[in-house]
């Protein structure tokens, strides 16, 4: 299982250090990292702090960096979304540093099948445009019809509280879809007692990527972050034995 990480904090001095520590200490774990400079790409190139830190992330073989776009649950124009994707692609042409991306994270994805063609358009735009990496990771945040997996490489099929997951959410994603599904759980109890078993459950169930955090936002690293990443590495290793 990969580590899913919405990295929505500005890269001021030291802010991303817990991520660099995790990448260094867990080289066997793959991190799928979403950067979001300005509710999307912002400028091309981004500012100097983003340039320096995205370049640093790209120096790690176990880091896959994706750019954030949003759809407002299908209400945002495809022209605007396409423009954001074009901007992210231009990052790959920046010659001073390697700030190319491995794909696009599509937030606030619609959940109803009347938006299927809308999502297919975004999927094919990414595949045609992104020259370095063209992974498409969508985020409806809830389980969706299996057909949506035809227009995504992976889907964030559950983004909610840990309690909601334990009270039925963990049985809401069909087994056949889990290898392309990610799970992001917030409001996790600030205790290590159940972390190992909870991570084992996600790995054993076959999810593509996961995240457990104590707070309910992605603006800082919490005290459980190193433990979570370490447990992912251990559980992945146990699965291979």
From TrEMBL:
Name listed for the protein in its UniProt record: Spherulation-specific family 4
Native species: Aureobasidium melanogenum
